[in-house]
Design goal:
Strand order of the largest sheet: 9-10-15-14-13-16
Number of helices: 25
Number of strands: 36
Strand content: 15-25%
Helix content: 25-40%
Shape: globular
Largest sheet: 6 strands, antiparallel, barrel
Radius of gyration: 34 Å
Distance between the termini: 38 Å
């Protein structure tokens, strides 16, 4: 053993490189590249265990919820490497992140490496020389309570998913998933869309005018009619979602177009005077430093970054020593950070812009237990954005600048604002009665008298539903100098019509905020949760808005009607509090899991049922009903295997005797599918299949159809004759063995209205054999695919210039195309997008190239697709080296295989 060697293990190669630069030569810093072990899929268990207590979940629910872990297949090489390094070391430092996940990674490393040397747990929330030095001097023991909390979550999610997801497979669609947080997040988005679908808009009118004082050097201002006599004029907030005035609105006057226009005429030439003038000073305080949740919200609002992109970028900034740890519930700043922020604020904005005393922020979350400080620039002295501009890529720089501004602003002085409200009016005969009536207009002006923290930063806001919200303070509106009783001239009196708006859809920012406010899930997992509901097809993006799919409606309905407690907001938040109690050591994890899964005998009725009982007593679920949504007017939307469609069960049947149906376009949001729109889609749908004729070679009927992915042609095969005595499984197998009908998508130049039998036969003849390569004897075919027309020779494909070329390309032309170097989807070769220098590991040049799935970085041996937040223009050599190192560390992809390893016993509680 080498004398004095110390092994430090962290999660990522980037973090390892940064830390290695701060440690001496006696330290070896290695990366585990995330978790090394996990619960296997039941199918991956050893054969002798599949029928045992671990067979269903890889967790023995009858014996203390004991988990069975295996080393991930792509981590075996890494684990072997760490074991070799450990043999040459006399001390082991586990330096994974200081949250529950990091603690669990450290515990798994400990269980798998089985070190015989002293082990120390090393924690830090920023990667600077000072922080690493302090962490070495203040190591601690592994925190078993944090490990318990993470393991309980993992087991809970396994039980939830493996019990509930199969119900979705049977009743909605294969491949779907249910989850403790993802299902509740999906429900939130669906409920908001239901509100929009039920919304009834209301129309209302008001008046605006431009007013001026007698002094020519004073600005004119705009005011809105707010009162007629003793009645307030109705605005959008006075109407309910049913389109009717709320009772709480009180005595208001609802102007329609004719009434508003009449008042414009009545007020024409009227003498207006200032009725009252009120001026109030106010202060605005800066927002607290960033937590994980508020960082995701603000990056979404200000930078248009998705939660996943924000967290990936923040991780990169943390691992490279630019910011503190990015998974935290706490807005607290250390005394050193407060001093640094105050110093920088004074240097950049002046001493008068710094708060009189240090601002101290407290965590709002009861379970703020991740890291113990806010997200801020790293170090005891902050680097300004200008100082790091050349070191960071586009997204990295923008996010660092946002974090820096928020941190510095949090220690700055309050902004001082002066708001003036003027009420002006004129008395004229009312249009309807002729009675002299006061018409009162109002306007407000805001002047920032001292910018304070606004000189550095202002927090963004989500889209508000109603107009007239409090000014953000960015835009100042100054009213002219005037006094009560002053005369005013009026111009441009206008009647304006308005329509109430439905509740705004969630954005990623507002969904994160809603989840946090309800105490659902952990902020550190929100980015992953939103990614899951997007990847599963439950939610799509329309701009920044999250739009639920009809699939999400079906899944949410099934869960609400059969697992209502599992998607109840309060119940889910209560689970989070219980898990926090386990982390705090005040709740026993086995007792809690037992109550969750087997039930609580102390509770009454269904509240005492556990998950197992809930699934076992589901009863019969009508899959057709669950997948149906009534659109009104006798129309029903159904969620089918190949997507949503409309069915008119009460109207005239189609030519085949079945109800008329029409596919629902993917880009049509649920709240846009009214009964009238559904009728329109049905009318546009061809009456049954469009028969084009008979294939002279096969005798089959050729038809054209409109499918979810566009129009296509196919042949109608005769119904197979099967033995009526076959079981359902045998019948399914026999049907699967039958020949499949030929199909072909219409070319872009074709349509259902113009396609002919000859066109269809050409499409069905594909792929077309172009000829044989004389050198290799391999057949070359021309065909149409997902990415357009292409040639295929064995496994080598090349793009064709047009759809017509599928039928016109000759063998000579095909051979000429194949003689050119290949790039991407078969186009000719192109030079690299960028050259970044040599890789220190492979000693080969690193270049950025454009590939089939987007830009990627390569050293000629190892390829790695660029993350979403990195572009070919902004990637640095250091980032490229890190990406390639992570890819190499993963090793070649292999089929996961279980290995014998330890099971974890429930930790004894003191």
């Amino acid at each position: 053993m080498s004398a004095g060697r110390k092994l430090v293990i962290v999660e990522s190669p980037a973090k390892a490189r940064t830390i290695a630069g701060y440690l001496g030569d006696e330290y070896d810093v290695e990366a585990s590249v995330g978790h090394i072990r996990d619960l296997p899929q039941p199918s991956e268990l050893p054969a002798e265990m599949k029928k045992g207590p671990f067979g269903k979940f890889a967790v023995d629910v009858d014996n203390g919820f004991e988990p069975y872990y295996v080393v991930d297949a792509d981590k075996k090489k890494k684990v072997a490497e760490l074991k070799r390094k450990l043999k040459d070391s006399d001390e082991l430092y586990l330096a994974t992140d200081e949250d529950r996940e990091g603690e669990a990674i450290a515990w798994h490393l400990l269980q798998e490496l089985k070190p015989k040397v002293p082990v120390k747990r090393m924690v830090f929330h920023e990667i600077t020389r000072e922080a690493i030095t302090r962490a070495l001097e203040n190591t601690r023991e592994l925190d078993e309570r944090l490990v318990d909390a993470q393991e309980t979550r993992r087991i809970l999610d396994r039980l939830y998913g493996y019990e509930v997801s199969p119900v979705l497979w049977r009743k909605v669609r294969q491949g779907l998933s249910a989850g403790r947080v993802q299902s509740v997040a999906t429900r939130l988005v669906v409920e908001r869309e239901r509100e929009r679908m039920a919304f009834v808009p209301a129309d209302y009118w008001d008046l605006t005018g431009t007013f001026a004082v007698t002094a020519a050097d004073e600005p004119a201002f705009e005011a809105r009619l707010t009162r007629i006599g003793d009645q307030r004029v109705a605005t959008g907030r006075d109407f309910g979602d049913d389109g009717v005035l709320k009772k709480s609105a009180g005595s208001v006057i609802h102007l329609d177009e004719s009434a508003a226009t009449a008042w414009v005429s009545a007020l024409d030439g009227a003498d207006f005077t200032v009725r009252s003038l009120e001026s109030k000073p106010s202060t605005r305080r800066p927002a607290a430093p960033f937590t994980t949740s508020t960082l995701q919200q603000e990056a979404s609002r200000k930078l248009r970054m998705a939660s996943r992109q924000t967290m990936r970028t923040a991780q990169s900034l943390y691992e490279n020593g630019y910011i503190t740890y990015m998974r935290t519930d706490s807005p607290v700043l250390s005394s050193q950070a407060i001093d640094a922020a105050r110093r920088q604020a004074a240097e950049l904005y002046g001493a008068d812009h710094v708060a009189d005393k240090a601002r101290v922020y407290a965590a709002k979350s009861k379970g703020a237990q991740e890291a113990h400080e806010a997200i801020r620039p790293a170090g005891d002295n902050f680097r300004t954005p200008a100082q790091v501009a050349r070191e960071l890529s586009g997204d990295q720089f923008r996010l660092y600048e946002l974090i820096w501004k928020r941190t510095v602003a949090s220690q700055m002085a309050d902004a001082k604002v002066q708001t003036t409200t003027v009420r002006l009016g004129a008395t004229v005969p009312a249009p309807s009665t002729g009675t002299p009536t006061e018409a009162q207009f109002s306007a407000s002006g805001t002047v920032i008298t001292f910018r304070g923290f606004l000189a550095a930063y202002e927090e963004g806001r989500d889209v508000e539903r109603y107009e007239g919200k409090e000014s953000s303070g960015k835009d100042e509106t100054r009213l002219p100098r005037m006094s009560e009783g002053d005369p005013l001239s009026a111009a441009d009196l206008t009647a304006d019509g308005h329509r109430t708006s439905p509740p705004p859809r969630y954005t990623e920012a507002s969904l994160v905020k809603a989840l946090e406010e309800r105490g659902i899930g952990r902020p550190s997992t929100y980015a992953a949760t939103i990614s899951v509901i997007q990847d599963r097809g439950y939610v799509t993006n329309r701009g920044q808005a999250l739009v639920p799919t009809w699939l999400a409606f079906a899944v949410t309905r099934l869960l609400e009607e059969n697992f209502d407690r599992l998607v109840d907001y309060d119940f889910t938040a209560g689970m989070e509090q219980d898990l926090d109690a386990i982390a705090a050591g005040t709740e026993d994890r086995v007792d809690w899991l037992t109550r969750f899964y087997f039930g609580n005998a102390a509770a009454d009725g269904v509240d005492g049922d556990g998950l197992r009982e809930l699934v076992a007593n589901l009863g019969e679920i009508d899959a057709r009903e669950v997948n149906s949504i009534d659109l009104g007017d006798g129309l029903t939307l159904r969620v089918g295997r190949y997507g949503p469609y409309i069915e008119d069960a009460q109207g005239e049947p189609g030519p085949d005797g079945n109800p008329r149906r029409a596919s629902v376009p993917d880009d049509l949001a649920p709240d846009e599918l009214t009964a009238a729109k559904a009728r329109e889609l049905l009318e546009a749908e061809p009456e049954g299949d469009l028969v084009l004729g008979t294939d002279p070679n096969t005798g089959t009927t050729i038809v054209a159809k409109n499918g979810r992915f566009g129009p296509y042609v196919t042949e109608v095969l005769p119904e197979p004759e099967l033995d009526p005595g076959l079981s359902a499984a045998a019948k399914k197998k026999a049907l699967a063995a039958q020949p499949k009908p030929r199909t072909g998508s219409l070319f872009k130049s074709m349509s259902l209205d113009t396609v002919t039998l000859d066109d269809a036969l050409k499409l069905l003849s594909l792929p077309r054999v172009v000829g044989t390569d004389p050198e290799t004897g391999t057949e070359i075919t021309a065909q149409n695919g997902r990415y357009g027309p292409y040639l295929k020779k064995g496994t080598d494909s090349r793009t064709l210039p047009s759809e017509d070329a599928i039928f016109s390309t000759t063998l000579e032309e095909a051979l000429a195309i194949y003689a050119q170097p290949k790039r991407g989807r078969g186009a000719t070769a192109a030079p690299p997008l960028r050259e970044l220098g040599d890789d220190p590991t492979s000693e080969k040049p690193i270049v950025v190239k454009d590939g089939r799935f987007g830009a990627y970085v390569t050293d000629g041996t190892t390829n790695r697709t660029l993350p979403r937040d990195v572009t070919p223009e902004t990637i640095t050599r250091e980032q490229a080296i890190e990406l390639l190192a992570e890819k190499r560390a993963q090793g070649p992809k292999k089929k996961p295989a279980a290995r014998k390893t330890t099971t974890r016993k429930a930790a004894a509680k003191k």
